[in-house]
Design brief:
Elements: H1 2-5, E1 13-19, H2 28-38, E2 39-50, H3 52-58, E3 68-74, E4 79-85, H4 88-97, E5 100-108, H5 119-123, E6 127-134
Parallel strand pairs: 1-2
Antiparallel strand pairs: 2-6, 3-4, 5-6
């Protein structure tokens, strides 16, 4: 896939962002390696992935024990898409391996000030959002 073949000069970017995209890759190591190379010192890497609670309701017989390919039901679009599930520990190991500092990890929910959503949207997170810094 494209992100695994992308090529940029080292220390090219201040910020790299991957919004719900790295979960399409079986090999997270190459992503972390590339981003670490491309970022300048103190550069920021943000990315989001589907939250395990969200996956539980959309992937049949979801197995959280190991990395593997999964099929996710996108109810609002009436289709199924594939992702690769990686346990949270996989991300922590890569953060450490590539010497990133974890600045923030957020579990996203919708604020109560936004009316009209189902009750689950206010209390159940649908994503993890990571903010890392190259140190």
């Amino acid at each position: 896939s494209t992100h695994e073949m992308a090529s940029y000069e080292p220390n090219s970017f201040d910020i790299c962002n991957a919004s719900f995209s790295i979960n399409y890759s079986r090999d997270l190591d190459i992503i972390f390696s590339n981003v670490h190379s491309w970022l300048k010192l103190d550069g920021i890497f943000t990315f989001s992935i589907p939250h395990p609670i969200w996956l539980q309701t959309r992937s049949e017989n979801m197995d959280f024990a190991k990395p593997h390919k999964i099929w996710i039901k996108m109810r609002s679009y009436d289709l199924e898409i594939f992702n690769y599930y990686h346990p949270l520990d996989s991300f922590i190991q890569l953060i450490n391996k590539y010497n990133f500092k974890l600045l923030h990890l957020m579990e996203t929910t919708i604020s109560k000030k936004y009316k009209g959503w189902s009750e689950d949207k206010y209390r159940l997170p649908n994503a993890y959002v990571f903010k890392l810094q190259k140190i």
